[in-house]
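Consider the following assembly input.
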Amino acid sequence: MAKKIHVTTEINGEPVEFLCEARQSLLEVLRDTLQLTGAKEGCNNGNCGACTVLLDDQPVDSCLVLGVEAEGARIATIEGLACAAHLHPIQQCFLEDAALQCGICTPGFIMSTKALLDRDANPDEHTIRFQLAGNLCRCTGYDKIVRAVQDSAKALAKNAVRSGTERDQSNGNRNTTERIQIR
Amino acid sequence: MAKVYIPAQWRDLTGTTTQLEIEGASLKQIIDGLERKFPGIAKRLCEDGQIAAGLAVSIDGDISSRGLLAPVSPTSEIHFLPAIGGG
Amino acid sequence: MAPKNTEAKKYNVIGTRPIRHDGADKVTGRAIYGSDLRMTGTVHGKILRSPHAHARILSIDTSAAERLPGVVAVATAADLPNLKDKIANLGEGSVNLAHLSANVLAHGKALYKGHAVAAVAATSPHVAEEAAKLIKVEYEPLPSVTWVLDAMKDDAPRLHDDVRTNSMGKKSDKTSNVPTHIHFEMGNVDEAFSKADVVIEREFKTASVHQGYIEPHVSTALWNEDGHLTIWTSTQGSFTARQQTAELLQIPVSQVTVVPCEIGGGFGGKIAVYLEPVAAILSRKCGRPVKMTMNRDEVFEGTGPTPGSFVRIKLGATKAGQLVAGEAWLAYDAGAFPGGMIGPGCMCVFSCYELANARVDGYDVLNNKPKTQAYRAPGATQAAFACESVIDELAEKLGIDPIEFRLQNAVKEGSRRVDGPVYPKIGFIETLQAAQNSPHWKSKLEGKYRGRGIASGFWFNIGLKSCAAAHVNPDGTVSLVEGSTDIGGTRTSVAMQLAETLGITAEAVKPRVADTDGVGYTDVTGGSRTTFATGLAAYEVGLDIVKQMSERAALLWECKASEVKCADGVYQSNGKSITFKELAAKLSHTGGPVVGRAAVDPEGPSNGFGTHIVDVEVDPETAKVTVLRYTVVQDAGKAIHPGYVEGQMQGGAVQGIGWALNEEYIFDDKDRMLNANYLDYRMPTALDVPMIETIIVEVPNPAHPYGVRGVGETPIVAPPAAMANAIYAATGVRMRELPMSPPRLWAAMSAKS
């Protein structure tokens, strides 16, 4: 058995230590050693972004980072986003804008969104699409995800989480879908 | 009497007949009636006492899952089709 | 019997946009998908796959693998029972079990590169991978074939020795690579063509394309000491997975429990089993839970892409724009085993248009590719790409606006489809009219190398079986149990239908997807059936509960149950009234719990039509196509949760855009896939598409109490044709091969100039 390496790091603001083999990716360590299964494996070679976490505030594909590279770094995963019993505004917007269907890509998108909005508080649509191009979604066609990011930017700017009543009254940024009813 | 449409691929058994009226209250009775008129048809339609694999029966536009037990009314229109599923 | 349609009613819950019930779990990463499952003692399974596209398997030696420290079990096809010629009815269609078994673990022959040949279980995934490499397989490579027309030739490499063409039950004498020939005929085609003013005949080709779900297949199996097999898996249908696994292992269905995990996409590709039976065998051998996942390349090479195809379409019309005759010849990949999507392809090819004279011939063709599986409206996209392109050409030749041309020939209630059945009330014309009136269609598109295209599409949408049960909680909430795995938010759309029926809020219903022991038989989440059929089950559960609640109110008021009326969740009789919530608190002393149940088997289809409009810009130097604007118009019957209906329309459209522009299986000269990864199998990213506008048309489905029509599949049918028509408008080049990737489009543009 390969000798394991001792790693000291910080995950979601907490100091963490773990043992891993040199060949293990950060994704594998998060999921199998630390039981943080929010980051998902979609391709294991850096093409789908389902494993996105923040490493020293940068969005990375954790399948392309070695576990040992976490030494001394600050890692943020989806599990650290919600605060006590409240969802983070980005999480809330994804729900209100129906920006997920199967949900497997959602943690990755939310982490990429956090990284984007931490750097750029008011990105335009093109910037959002460019910065999220490393996260694949097969279900939604991206429309509602982009709207959720736009709404997240607004919500973070207001620094408020929408209440239930506000949600029903405001149209937010959802498609104002025309519906034609035939009797 | 129910109207049965004959798939073009069965012309070797049915000649020029493309549709015909058959008496029956269930699909099984309809197929029995078809077999009496065109011997050999039942073997194409049924396997092991059920509708053959890969085939579906449309009765008035609905795909019945009751197989041979599916009820048929005097005004029913019956088609034999490839089975469809979905993804 | 079809329930009465509550037409033109104002709904309280239906049509609103509540947050989905599993939302918090999904946005926090807490939801348990198959790979997130953790169980003590789990070992990891790995499959060894054929490196050859076609080969005889002469021997398999697993001894070196078995000796590797950490390996606990190995499996080959020898561990599966012999199932020669057994057929099972699996709800959506029949399956030849011997073929299913041989696809799960190859019997005697490897039929495609990636075909599973053996499996090993070990204490870590890394050890399992190393062990798989130690399995020695002796192959005798054989010539292979992947292009569908080549595979039909008499001298093509033969995949199976015993396949005879089945023509609606009539079997041919000689063997071939063509298991099925479909033929439809209506009217007098040749005479009608001879009388037509304009006739256009064109040929089209499409490549293998994968559903592309982001979550790879994953299953964990535990064959317990008491002989019971439990499987936790990523599946579109737990009951179907249970039945397939039980049949393949030849054990009673009662001995198997399938627990559906949350699923990361399916689109038709997670209906057939791949890993479940293998994990089960390994677990039986080692007595531990065996978890198996696929790598992304295994997903591409070892599961079920949609058929590549060759389609020839001929359409004839009068000068005035009336279609008079149609002929279609279609050859679709079956892949390694019979049972491809040719049937629905043949039924859909002319399904949008009134054609008194039509002839369709379709062939299911074996070739050395993975066995094809459903991909959202299976077979329809390939057919629509061909037909809608010719429709566009005809309209142009006749000088008629493309929407007007379609309106003039559109099917409606009473129209007969070429395969025979007559349409009930449908909404195709309404989608065309909505497209015509849309802001997109009315807008001007200006600029060089810019063009607009339009296309329509149809999918049947199936019915099939669903069960549900619900119990009323003392606080007025209702816990709902249903069996449809939730891929896109259906637990909420189903809960909303129960809520509407009971007159309570969507939030007051707590939906849960149960395993195969916890709910009655429920067919797959697929075929656009879930909101329709499981929703119908929820409606009937609601009626059952209302009936019982009325009886309780009658007891309280000492009147007859028939004197109690219920509307919007309030029970009334003779001036007395009580809300659902208030009544719920009184159940325990009026007779005990109230439980509602339903088992439905609606006969469908709900008939979904859509029309898509797209504006593109083509770069003349690189032939890159930019999608400027896209609108999906679709008849949903009744949109239960508009947000999730829009989501289906948008998601299907973008999958279709990927199919149109970039996605394909690229094979080398030995028929091995070269691009089995997300980098080179190029699916759309957020940067590749604009916002997708949606217009939901609602022509209520007479066969559903809330008018629901399935919506999930129709949106993938029209996009490739719409894109091709737009590219033509932008460049003057008619593309008849998918994908219309830059190298191909550039070559066509260069040839033209």
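The longest strand of chain A covers residues 5-11. Ask yourself how this observation constrains the way the partners meet.
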